[in-house]
Amino acid sequence: MAWIHDFVERVNQLAKFAASTSLKKETVWLGGMFSPEAFITATRQLVAQSNQWSLEELNMRVEVGVTEDRVDSFKIQARAASEFGDHTGF
């Protein structure tokens, strides 16, 4: 049953995030999240607060590419740009 495999993959992703000490280098399966919009919003807020910027100063650029470990997946790298420079990650 395909839905069971999908559910197991979602749980595995959540377990990986829970065990991680830093999400900066984690691969994210946005389609496997229960609320991907909330994840993107939270990462933008984290970058803004960490750098003492307002959310209005941030521009989000998404790069999509194939990851080395899975042919059927894509890698997305978020970059935050502000008047102070260009920063990778969140």
UniProtKB/TrEMBL annotation:
GO cellular component: dynein complex
UniProt superkingdom: Eukaryota
Sequence ranges assigned to domain Dynein heavy chain C-terminal in this UniProt record: 2-67
One GO BP: microtubule-based movement
GO molecular function ontology, one term from the record: dynein intermediate chain binding
Stored Pfam families: Dynein_C
PANTHER family (UniProt xref): DYNEIN HEAVY CHAIN, DYNEIN HEAVY CHAIN, CYTOPLASMIC
Name the record gives this protein: Dynein_C domain-containing protein
Lineage, top ranks: Eukaryota, Metazoa, Ecdysozoa, Nematoda, Chromadorea
